[in-house]
User: Fold these one by one.
Assistant:
Number 1:
Amino acid sequence: MTEPFSVPVTVRGYEADTQGHLNQAVYLNYAEHARWSLLQAAGIRQADLLAKGVGPVALETTIRYRRELLAGDEVRVTCEFEWGEGKTFRIRQHILKTDGTLAAEIEAVGGLLDLTTRRMVPDPRERFKELAADPALFGL
């Protein structure tokens, strides 16, 4: 099994809350950054999606906080797509400290929205295959 796609992130001081640890909302920003980085690494730019009349949408997100993160911490944010049947897919992500400690688990349910009809694309897996220069990054 190959390692999941990941991006490095340094926790910035202004992202800390009054207790000195990473603000809970910023975990979502890190997850979103990793997802868009994966799309770009696979050869899909935001402009490409718009040109094809589709856009990714988040339908549900769950975060499990495991260990606190402090300003200056270096982390790696992973991103793995899990495909099923139908209009949705899952994205599993981990935020890991440099020593491998799991700081957070993020699980999301997403879809691909047809921007004209405002309806979910019936088979997002096939659309990602068509759009990506490197569909293997999506597990395809």
Note: Helices lie at 24-41, 46-51, 124-131.
Number 2:
Amino acid sequence: MRFLFVGDSMTVGRAGDITWRYRMWQHLEAAFGGPYRIVGPRTELYDPEADAPVSYAYGAPDFPAGARHHLAGWGVGFHHMWPLIGEAVRAGRVDILLVSLGLIDLGFYTDSAQTERNARAFIAGARAANPRIRAVFLPVVPNIRAEADPAFAAEVGRFNELLGKAVADLDRPGSPLLLASRPAAYDIHADTYDGTHPAPSGEHKLAAAFADAMHQAWGLGAPYERRG
């Protein structure tokens, strides 16, 4: 089974971060119960000083190089990723996508309706590369802008509804799609370091959302257990 993590700054992480990708790797190592690989065209973290994804300074030194692969970037969304996903799936021979996108789209590029259309294009691109691909999508999680800006919060809520409908519409037996539950009791003041990007407790909650969705719907792995 070959996994690809797709996301924005919450997924790629910055220099020194542990990342929820590490927490997911820990979970897969402990609970997956079969051979797997984490694949993708990138392994870097974002370096704030260089304003570029050029760092390899992960906060968890035991995170093996082979498990650091991803398709994520600081400041990206479905707007950027739907044209790239087909080649990434093809090159990585991806079986399962774990996708956390949408916040950046709504914040800078597209409204909820266009973001949903881009999400549909993303799914179509992935399936063109692998017609049997599976995918788990995480709704946009609480963030500081939504707390401070009611209009933006409404757009986030609207997009999450549209994403849920798109996943339900496009789900099919040969290529199942899941909408993960928003992490329970996700507190931007405790689970992030700046109101948006996950702190260690937030990393665990994001990884758990994906792990529990796969276990509950597909019987893959086990319920998430916090390690470290």
Note: Residues 75 and 108 are 9 Å apart (CA to CA).
Number 3:
Amino acid sequence: MLQIFNIDFNFIKNEVVCYVKNFNSEGSIFGNGDRNVIKLFELEGKIINIKSFKIPNLINKIAYKYFRKSKAKRSFEYATILLKKGIGTPQPIAYFENFNSLGLRDSYYVSEHLEANLTFRELVEVPDFPDHDVILRQFVKFTFDLHEKGIEFLDHSPGNTLIKKEANGNYSFYLVDLNRMNFHEVMDFDRRMKNFRRLTPKKEMIAVMSNEYAKYYQESEPLIFEKMWQATTQFQEDFAKKRRLKKKLKFWKS
């Protein structure tokens, strides 16, 4: 099995290798594990987060061996890039890739586990969440900073930003589920607005988000709201169509 470590964590290399080898029988499951499985392990007084990616289909097995970077490798590399750019994400420790004659079999991404107070999802589902407006506006500034640094987080969705309240009362934001990103010299207006499309279907939240984004960007608030809301509604429509199609396919299969 190929194993690549962040040099800052070489001192725990043997223990991490052991955790990965015994992943199926040890550790505590974290989250629902619908597609990928995340487990937590205690080490040196810290909690280590190990994500086991779903075994790919035959086409992707071959693709990940010869043509594309695996999700584990991308997660590790993108985390390293984010930290260099001053963007929060749990510290990357290592990634592992297990190949057989066909291609990639299984892979793992290892990082420090970060305990958060909430994710963006709480802001969507709990309108009266404490500090709701403050957190939402600080999150928009965080996203603006991503865009200014040319970072297009393709999975910018409610569960993929961890939020921590700091001692000074401000909030810090940390990206997770990192394997889908693009990096640009400059992000244009349409791409920036489209990047908000997965976050919330609530028009009142889009109004606040567009108001805050307009404080930092050269376009007018009405235009920012229009483009942000347009991207959001298009995403919601496409998502609903996919759900209806899946239900039809399940019906015919049954």
Note: The radius of gyration is 20 Å.
Number 4:
Amino acid sequence: MKKQLSALFILTLIPIAGLTQQPGISQEQMQQLMQQAQQMQACMSRVDQSAMMEMGQKAQAVEAKIKSLCQAGKRDEALDTAIAFGREMADDENIRIARECGKMAQKMLPDFKFPTSKAEAEAQNSHICDAYAQ
């Protein structure tokens, strides 16, 4: 989990590194991006890494249990297990902080307009290829 959080932080810096090569970026914009990166790093430092690793291990165990229950035909019990773990995750302070940091990271990234699911693409009433037909 620590590697995942570090990777997330590094991925947020990639656009910043690319922007430094752009001739149109001002010194003020660059300073603002660097300040945002520092804020995100401070945010991530509030996350208890060992607790996140434990939660990751527990998630793998719960996933295996759910899969086993499903294979045994115990669908209701599998759903109850998933819901209970979901509530536990929703109530976990470290998960809440990590989500907060993740939102901060998303604000730093460029806004891409690509759909993230077929349902989202269908809701847009157009196909991705329609944009290239002109």
Note: The chain has six helices and no strands.
